[in-house]
Amino acid sequence: MYVAPSILSADFGRLGEEVRAVCDAGADLIHVDVMDGHFVPNLTIGPLVVNAVAKASTKPLDIHLMVQNVPFFADLFLPLKPKFLSFHIEEEKHPLRLIDHIRKNGVSPAITLNPHTPISALDYIIDEVDMVLLMSVNPGFGGQKFIPSALRKISELRNLIEKRGAKCMIEVDGGVNGLNVAELDSAGADIVVAGNFVFSSNDYSEAIKALKV
Ligand code: DX5
Ligand code: ZN
């Protein structure tokens, strides 16, 4: 299992230090939640701060856009060359065009599904993306409770990927912890995002190790 700590739960007064600490503690990616106060009822960070995070990080960035006007925000973050740039399928009218644009900029395109959005929404997209991010909480905040129906969704997506011979990875975001990670693994997840579980622990290495099932 790859682990992507979400800096949403980090101490923002010591953000650089926090990013370096989770990198040293075994993080595979640094998950960055960009929220615009419209798509979700929370407002986080823009390219200025994310650029500082990129400089502090020894691991690739995994940028999760929770915004309206997705192409505008994508162009703000593409120059930072994250590993993944993901956006919500619920918000973008022309997802295939944007996926193509992200790839042409040398970044791996990823698509995100809210908890209520069915896997069938991916039917004509699955072959075009490098990763699907399944939300296992309603997006907007860290520290929420895992929504159990996400488990069935991971399995459904794993079946679809196998049936189609697609090469995309499955990432799960929201309410992930040391107790539910084994189930996520059996259902077929490749990457877990963890905010609260990692940053509220006293030992980042131990927390990340607990997620590497
Ligand atoms: C929620 C964000 C998540 C969040 C996860 O909208 O997309 O990445 O930081 O936090 P935890 O792991 O605390 O649920
Ligand atoms: Zn996220």
Commentary on this structure:
- With 213 residues, the chain is an alpha/beta fold.
- The chain has one domain (2-211): Aldolase class I (TIM Barrel).
- 34% of the residues lie in helices and 19% in strands.
- It contains 8 helices and 8 strands; from the N terminus they run βαβαβαβαββαβαβαα.
- The protein has helices at 15-24, 47-56, 70-77, 95-104, 150-164, 181-187, 196-199, 204-211, and strands spanning 2-5, 30-35, 61-66, 84-88, 108-113, 131-135, 169-173, 191-194.
- An 8-stranded parallel β-sheet has the order 1-8-7-6-5-4-3-2.
- α5 links the parallel β6 and β7 (169-173).
- The mean pLDDT is 98.
Radius of gyration: 16 Å
- From the 3D coordinates, which CATH architecture would you assign? Alpha-Beta Barrel
How many β-strand stretches?
A: 8
What spatial form do the alpha-carbon principal axes imply? globular
Assign the structural class, choosing from mainly alpha, mainly beta, alpha/beta, alpha+beta, or little secondary structure. Answer: alpha/beta
Strand content: 15-25%
What is the CATH topology assignment? TIM Barrel
CATH superfamily: Aldolase class I
Sheet with most strands: 8 strands, parallel
Q: Please identify the top-level CATH class.
A: Alpha Beta
The strand line-up of the biggest sheet is 1-8-7-6-5-4-3-2
Total domain units: 1
Count helical runs.
8
Cofactors and ligands: D-xylitol-5-phosphate, zinc ion
Separation of termini?
6 Å
**SSE string:** EHEHEHEHEEHEHEHH
Helix content: 25-40%
What would the average pLDDT be, to the nearest integer? 98
